[in-house]
Amino acid sequence: MMEYSLGEGNFKDWIVAETKFSPDLLGKGESIMYLGNGYMGLRSATEEPYLQETRNLFVNGTFNKAFPNEVTELPNIADSTRIDIRVDGERFSLELGKTNEYIRQLNLKTAELTRNINWTSPKGKELRFQFKRFVSLDNLHLIGMKMEVESLTDTVDLSFDSGINAQLSNSGSQHFLEGERRVFDRQFLSLTQTTSESNVDIAINTMHRISKNGKETNNIEPRMDMARRSVWLTYDIQLEPKEKLQVEKLTTIYTSRDNVLEESSDQLEALRDYSLNQLKAISEKGYDKLFEDHQHAWKRKVWDVYNLDVKSEYSYDLLALRFAIYHLTVMTPAHDDRMGIGAKALSGEGYKGHSFWDTEIFILPFFTYANPKVAKSLLTYRYHGLIGARRKAKENGYSGAMYPWEAAWPTDGEVTPLFGDIDIVTGEQTKIWSGLIEQHITSDIAFAVFQYYLVTGDHAFMERYGYEMIFDTANFWASRLEWDEKRREYHINNVIGPDEYKEHVNNNAYTNYMAYFNLRLAGRYYELLKDNNPDLLYRLNERLNLKEPYHDWQRKADNLYIPKPRKEDLVIPQDDTYLSLKEIDLSKYKNQEQVRGIYRDYNPEQINEIQVTKQADVLVLLYLLEQTFLKEDFRLTRELKHANFDFYEPRTLHDSSLSLATHAILANDIEKADLAYALFKEATEIDLGPNMQSSDEGVHAASIGGIWSSAIFGFAGLRLDGEKLRINPSLPKHWDEMKFTINWKGQPITLLITQSLLTVKAENKEPISFETFGKAYSCTDYLEVPI
Amino acid sequence: MMEYSLGEGNFKDWIVAETKFSPDLLGKGESIMYLGNGYMGLRSATEEPYLQETRNLFVNGTFNKAFPNEVTELPNIADSTRIDIRVDGERFSLELGKTNEYIRQLNLKTAELTRNINWTSPKGKELRFQFKRFVSLDNLHLIGMKMEVESLTDTVDLSFDSGINAQLSNSGSQHFLEGERRVFDRQFLSLTQTTSESNVDIAINTMHRISKNGKETNNIEPRMDMARRSVWLTYDIQLEPKEKLQVEKLTTIYTSRDNVLEESSDQLEALRDYSLNQLKAISEKGYDKLFEDHQHAWKRKVWDVYNLDVKSEYSYDLLALRFAIYHLTVMTPAHDDRMGIGAKALSGEGYKGHSFWDTEIFILPFFTYANPKVAKSLLTYRYHGLIGARRKAKENGYSGAMYPWEAAWPTDGEVTPLFGDIDIVTGEQTKIWSGLIEQHITSDIAFAVFQYYLVTGDHAFMERYGYEMIFDTANFWASRLEWDEKRREYHINNVIGPDEYKEHVNNNAYTNYMAYFNLRLAGRYYELLKDNNPDLLYRLNERLNLKEPYHDWQRKADNLYIPKPRKEDLVIPQDDTYLSLKEIDLSKYKNQEQVRGIYRDYNPEQINEIQVTKQADVLVLLYLLEQTFLKEDFRLTRELKHANFDFYEPRTLHDSSLSLATHAILANDIEKADLAYALFKEATEIDLGPNMQSSDEGVHAASIGGIWSSAIFGFAGLRLDGEKLRINPSLPKHWDEMKFTINWKGQPITLLITQSLLTVKAENKEPISFETFGKAYSCTDYLEVPI
């Protein structure tokens, strides 16, 4: 029912389309076609309502905890997109009457959603509907909508209700006090909301412009209505055959988190007036002009910046990459460094808008390389999060900064829920341990800072934020390690690694290596600062109360147990017991339609005893550590990658959407080109594929980051090599050419790759070309990269 | 779409039926066919869900205030009635496929709801569905459901999800913390909830019994699932042609308001276990046996008690009266004297489950005369409410008991919301003044106590509860009256009378007369006790700190201004200014489809200036005061009734459902027999009529009380006459015979009325007959009524 090849001309490979309407499979289109601008995300529920719809609007950073026994989440803001349409008194719905033509399209280039319908009412009258909408990238507070209805054959009595509805909740949890509802001048509707616990004010205003046959009219006086938590207008219009009704609906949304207003005595009223005035100011422009501004913003801020192109006989690949960039843009709060990226972006209630390691490991690299300003904002969010991370460390009896597994507002600290899905053995809810013992997130963030610094050379960031984050995460690890007296080494016991099918394991390879990395990195930066910036080091010493940490970090790293590859087969044990667990036939769960199907047959305790891996674990380690200075410590030979890939890939169910991209990149590294492409393709299909329910709870943000990563770090072979940038392209056989722009040490570099040639073009410099035969080329000579 | 003549044989005039399904007009059937037992009310949303449905389950007394700026209300309890059915993977919905046969019936006699459907799926397979359910009157905590599906033509893959869903809210306001969800033994599902503010625990348990072709089977292993606030099982069953699936679903509901448990350390867990054990204990019986117990309870507790019959060519009238008794039974918490009756019964969110004067003036008379034990419980609820009434008086600067306009839990006090619908002039919400200035409720309750005492002679009630209520309400009025120095009399300024279209009026006739009545009644009882029970009077004096109230009450009553009939036309002025307001053409708003249509053209301020009345006001006065000892003070001649009826009826929009019954009774009194019947009929049609949206927010409890009142006080002409019972029948021309049983001074009396004969039959006595020709007959001689 999804179609990706309908774009033509300027829009070739830009159109994500839905060609058949299915009332029971709405989640797919709602999610993957959702609109947003980082400030807000509007799930693409249709104007006319359906039973199975999920109507969501999220504004980043408005976290609230609805009830004492729940965790904070992004609340579902009042909706202004629903329009209840009646034709001769009968409800317009594609479940009723007859749908003669139907197409819904998300234009990735213009970020506009359109829907064209030819429909015959149950009474037999034929009408044409067109719906358009966008969430402006030019004015972050604006939702523009346009509806056109044409009666094709008969005189019809058209009627519609349109307003603002705040009866929505998050699956039953209501976050908002009922606020004020108002109609001004029978035209401007206003609704305010305040979150129940975090006290965030929301002001939503909307207005309609009505045109008949292309001429705006004020003659159609609407009825006004209110019900609990809602306010709306009802318009009644008669259309003769061939007559057209056009309705523009413009909505503005402001929240007290925006900081647009000075402190005032009645903050909420001031916010409402401000929002209303903004709406009045722009309402004169109308949909078309406002859309034009939005479209220009997308060109300027997105497509010109990333400059991505693929020439290939199979143009889906390019569309998938554009889809990734589209979503990476709409999900990311580039405007506010107090906000992060949710695991389901802004497209659904799944994971409550919380940020996981998904951001740092699977999404951030895109921004670090291609839009470092945004990467800086996202890392600054983690810097603000030190408050919560330090509290978490203290609460758990540790020192330093222990980052929350799930993060919301920076000061919230740990917000992972305590209970999850059903345990099929006990019939109870399963306990979620991640918030307590999935601890690698702390070094993942340290890694992201390190990577950002290497790529951008942004000393200012490091001095203001970065060193403090690295030192205080190292402090956490130093306090976290457990001395094993018998083996005379430090262990990290009772953790969950990236493979969440293994709870309470000891010495998860990924966790131990990354902790080692974190400690060593802190030590290295400490030395660096001692030489280059003793003043800063003095200040950090004061603030963090470091007390000779350097020696502690070094000593602990020196004595930390790092699981080494088994001599016989080079396999790195995922943890202390994994390799001795029983093996079962996993074919039932590999490539299944439904993820986590294994939970239908086994409960967590039982899965813990099986040699099965949810998602890339040891393999993420091999992918990340290659990019660090640790290569002197650990020789990541091709053989090592090969051995571990061959061992873990068959045992990995990819039951997390984070998994495939890593395997795709690693497959590239070990020259399994076909498999690499297949895994890339599979990663794109997590959201774009034929499974109509996989995106119900929202798009998979990390997987979308992984689409870009698979192409850039996989096919284009971009990799950090020590402090240098290494490029080792290996395009899929059917790709003729690939182009993209990244930033290296503050300057944009455009790479043009064919099957045989790599051309590197920096600003104001002549392009340089190299022949590519799977060899590694370093750009450092050319770019003179300092660190 | 509703049909009332389908009952046959034993069920003639017992069947309320819906013969066509209309997905946009669901409210009517959901409300008027709702099931209940006073403990709980289950709105009749269908098993399969629809977009426009309103799915409600209320348990009486579980009031909660969801947010600080809202008022307390009956929360929408978790639902166990929804069953999502799929046929060959396609959703079963009457909006899809083809419905060949459809009928839904509420059997008033057995209080069972059944639905029979013959449906062809979109894939062309024909199936027969039968759904049944009841809310047990035998076991107040039980909901029984039964579903039968037969494949008529093909092999089908049937699948359904069934469980407990607590995602529901009250129009967006969530009252419950998310509780525990559990599955026990893959069969018993459990969900607990706790209200957010009032801390009421709810435990819901449900279970399924599956039969194939009439044989119970445990072979069909369901899948178990949980989502936020919900838990369910999924069954997959293949049916060959002519095979039948039967599913029984039994649900028990217990709350901490039930007081079934001893105090315990974990109240909620204890409640869940108790509820679960109760369910396990009854689950063996199965639907049919449990239904039989329920049906017997209806016979024993309801139909045998009220013993109502009407013989008439037009049998709708009898059905309407049975409909009234059905609803008066299911709405009333006869089991618990801490609970009242909501204005929309237990059938919808309208009026939030709050009790108004509707109970005392329009519903209670039914119980007072026909089931005094229940009347006592309802009045005891008001006695418990003295706590809140005294607080309200104090908060408003008065003494005594000032009853809340809207009442919830007895200790809550005033719970009227502060804002209502849209003001079409300002675009703001209108302010609701009733909670502050609609004060006649206090004397309405005093009146109800008086009436109860007269009819039942229940001295014990009076001594324990009644006198205290009468005295303390009189205390309120004594403090409330305002001395007008110029006119040397007491006034009651700035009130709303029964006519809520007039706000802030002075000396509303109804209010002033009823206050006068209240003061005089207190004085009279005071004298009575002084003579007969000085001990009780002493104790009441102590408790209420009465300090010579008697003289105060008498003096104030003596000097209270009572609007007298105008000399020229005997019209009693509704208030100080009503008769001088401007008159407009009201024909647009009389007999309109939509109530309160006048608000579409005028805002409250403007309506205040027009000679228009929302509902019976002066006329209620004429109806009630006739029943009091005040007849010595006010001669209620037929001419006075006539004059005021003729004046006010054309000015009354009946924009409250409380209005018609009063006018019907008065029309009877003034011998407008046709009009009396027309008004009775109109009153029945508030819920039973062809308007498919008038019951969307719930049935009209007071109007339903009014159906019974119109027949008994109107057609049968039953009326208190001083301390005697007067019967002055005047049956509608097409009624041959009417029969019913009431209680008088503790003993049941059956009245049999024909067009010419009244027969009175008391227990263990020979029946006595009188000829009736519109004359008044007093039963007091025969019954020897003392007071």
From TrEMBL, chains A, B:
The active site is at residue 500. It comes from the Bacteria. Keywords: Glycosyltransferase, Hydrolase, Transferase. PANTHER family: GLYCOSYL HYDROLASE-RELATED, PROTEIN-GLUCOSYLGALACTOSYLHYDROXYLYSINE GLUCOSIDASE. It holds the Pfam family Glyco_hydro_65m. Residues 18-257 form the Glycoside hydrolase family 65 N-terminal domain. GO terms for molecular function: carbohydrate binding; glycosyltransferase activity; hydrolase activity, hydrolyzing O-glycosyl compounds. It comes from Oceanobacillus limi. Substrate binds at residues 357-358, 614-615. The lineage of its organism: Bacteria, Bacillati, Bacillota, Bacilli, Bacillales. Belongs to the glycosyl hydrolase 65 family. Coiled coil: none annotated. This is Hypothetical glycosyl hydrolase. Residues 322-708 form the Glycoside hydrolase family 65 central catalytic domain. GO terms for biological process: carbohydrate metabolic process. Residues 718-777 form the Glycoside hydrolase family 65 C-terminal domain.
